[in-house]
Give the backbone structure.
Amino acid sequence: MKGWSLCRIECRQLRHDRVFWATSLLCAAALLFGFNNGRQWQTGQDALIAEYAQQSRQDFEELLNMAKELRAKNQPPAQTVAERERDPRYALTLGGMAQHICRQNGDLAALTVGQTDLYNACILVNAWEVGGAYDERLHRTLENPLRLLFGRFDAAFAILTLLPIAILLLTYNQLSAERELGTLALLGCQPVPPRRVIAARFAVRSACFVALTLLPLSLALWLAAPPADAPSFVAAWGGWLLVSTAYLLFWFACAFWVNSRGNGSTENGLLLAGLWLSLVTVLPGCLNLGLKQWYPLPSRMAFIDASREATIEVGKRKSALLGKYLIDHPERVPPSSSVNADDFIQTRIALDEETQRVLAPGRAEFAAQQGHQRELVERLGFLSPTIVYQHTIQQLTGQGRDYQQAFLEAVADYHQRLRAFYFPKFVQDGPEFNDYQAIPQFQHPAPADAFRRSNLPLACVGVGLPSLLLVVAGWRNMRRIRFKVGA
């Protein structure tokens, strides 16, 4: 009998398995519920981000219109620094205008909220500083600390933890139940080897389970919102579907191997529960603890204290710093005026650059430790397919730490370009600034690059290779079934 005929027979038997259909539909409902949670979070955040972007554009246009109006009225130049900071004819006003720089969510962001509800979605940036570490509007609703600790119930959480449990419940006794019910001998009398029957049973159940759970979720994703960039969306969605299917099949392979050992249903259940506990909770938890022990991040509170101390210490040396600054940058000395420590703009630039220099080692250490942690996760992630799968889908959906780090680096680069553009104009500023087209613009790291950043082939190997080894080992173990029947 061919394998296709065996699968057709198993399909006919599966139609009467109410437990399988009920469990599969419950899993599909859990996935859709998690997707709806993620979609609500994404919709609310996208609306606020769009509002911030619109507000920044309106503020800039108002300053431009105000500058045109002042020039049309031949308004006299500002006499003090305070007046220059409010006069849009000066670069000091435009350079000091804080604007919200917000991260963009990808088309698949609703599938994985992850820890992005803990990240800063928007950051206030001007030529002087990168502020807005706390966004009061995006975080104005009080959150339950326990909810932030455990995270949102999203589709990724359901696939990572709940669906493997359902798979193990549906398959832990596919062979042992035949023995305990006394039908294994009858199965062994068939012309088809029992291992082919069991393999066909697993193949049919795995295909139906994957189709019943992942396809409704994919359909909901397509119908929720039309993708802005169809090719990149299809690529990311295809990668997500491929690695998700491989992850679910891994748990079917685990159950197939455990069934092949010939133990009873109780032993099979305990062994599979131990595997789930080890791969889903223990190993990721141990890796997380190891990251904190081997590459601990510097204390954020210590960094804040160091920033305050550096600001105070630098302020005490402002006269010496101003002199050194003017020696290093003679091109920034106004040709028709004298400069002393009371010159606000010169002093502020000198203090700001010295403060940045003093804090640079602390920032570099923080970035280096984060880089070491990412490298360690990529190296040791293959200890558990769960770690590989979680890391990959976070990259594919643009919700991982990699994209957040790329966003922060883009903000830092934008801040440096603002400083390079505005600082020379601040010290030699006049009411004739109109170089608006040359003002640096922020360049978003595209979420579409998430597919290229994710190492999808390596992830498929990390999840698929253990599955293949388990299936091969289980297939070899099931050769003994025929002899047991004969005995």
In short: The CA atoms of residues 81 and 152 lie 48 Å apart. The chain has a mean pLDDT of 80. The longest helix spans residues 18-72. DSSP finds 19 helices and two strands in the chain.
